[in-house]
């Protein structure tokens, strides 16, 4: 594995133009884990120049050849799955079992499915007197978050490359180490120089430099809604294509005929997934008012299984948050909710008794949450579930949609057709019915301020393709 003191430009590990370094902190021990270059606009310029030089030849490369590179990346990712899962677990704080089951398998799937989707895609079609051509934009700047570091990169990079674009990647500085491993894998499969480039640094530094860069044709960003607005503003100055996958405050609606003993543990698990650091997490449970007391007790008991602990242990379900700032932010959200009048079912803002170090937060359930409370509206991004209640189905839908976000949702009912009717009324990009399994190849993205554009599958490929009509 390469040292973390270099960036990847034009097919080679290269020193940054900057002498500055960013410290990566182990969220479990609070000790320094590694350092990565704090890149400059010169690094961004060099990466974009390399990507631009490679864009033409790569766009003309046969789809079968591009797909072969992507499959090779997927195979090497799968081969290194064990060490990569350990690195993600240590870097992010996610439990090792979750890193193996999800954090590594999802990117393997993305590279494989991007190859498969590109091979099946009709890049040229005759429609009446016109030849409709789908072609790559050119250079894609991919700016990715820390919570699913390799998966979020793969969801952008795999499909951008499959479509024939070249890429400059800026990963999060909070948990970047697994991206050096991924880049080493990409380097090992022999992509032409400049097709993929890695530049590390901060959002204000490298991220903003890429967003406003005139040599970048597409910006694909995943992160907070606040940061997404900034990226969109900078990118719009040169009228770039922009795709944004932003925040969420996703509701789970339990209809009166659903079994709460089944619903509550499942929704709690969805809220606490990846230590609660999942943009599409089901963080609001909306239940019939007559069942509220029973649901609170079920949630209290279910939360007891989520004990904070060392993410490297096989039996740990809840690890630390990624940083001290994130831990403190989540604790403030809990304190503010209680001040606003929410009921504490379990957990709270105090540090857990064990472990005695690390960025840990108690698994927390709040109830009697109402629409005038910040915890109803704001994305918390930690192991916190808010329970809200309703009297009628219309009220349940209104509460569910009463948010600026629209990334995901869920509906539970003994009657699947009734659940589907309610699901159609939710303003969200993905809606799960009765705990259905997540489909990684379905279009993923949000309504409203959860962003625009989609990732994954055919929709994910087409986000990176421009449309040309040739009249023949």
Please explain how this structure is put together.
The chain has helices at residues 41-59, 63-79, 81-92, 96-103, 105-120, 149-162, 177-188, 203-212, 225-236, 260-272, 292-303, 324-340, 374-377, 393-401, 416-425, 457-462, and strands at residues 6-9, 12-15, 21-25, 32-37, 124-127, 130-136, 139-143, 166-170, 196-198, 218-222, 241-245, 250-254, 282-288, 343-346, 364-367, 384-390, 408-412, 430-433, 451-452, 465-471. The protein has 472 residues and is α/β, with parallel strands linked by helices. Helix 15 (416-425) links the parallel strand 17 and strand 18 (430-433). The chain is globular, with a radius of gyration of 22 Å.
**How many distinct beta strands?**
20
**Pairing-aware structural class of the strands and helices?**
alpha/beta
Strand content: 15-25%
Describe the largest sheet. 7 strands, mixed
Notable traits:
472 residues, 7-stranded mixed β-sheet, 6-stranded mixed β-sheet, 16 helices, 20 strands, globular
Give the topology.
Elements: E1 6-9, E2 12-15, E3 21-25, E4 32-37, H1 41-59, H2 63-79, H3 81-92, H4 96-103, H5 105-120, E5 124-127, E6 130-136, E7 139-143, H6 149-162, E8 166-170, H7 177-188, E9 196-198, H8 203-212, E10 218-222, H9 225-236, E11 241-245, E12 250-254, H10 260-272, E13 282-288, H11 292-303, H12 324-340, E14 343-346, E15 364-367, H13 374-377, E16 384-390, H14 393-401, E17 408-412, H15 416-425, E18 430-433, E19 451-452, H16 457-462, E20 465-471
Parallel strand pairs: 7-8, 7-10, 8-9, 10-11, 12-13, 12-17, 13-16, 15-16, 17-18
Antiparallel strand pairs: 1-2, 3-4, 5-6, 6-20, 11-19, 14-15
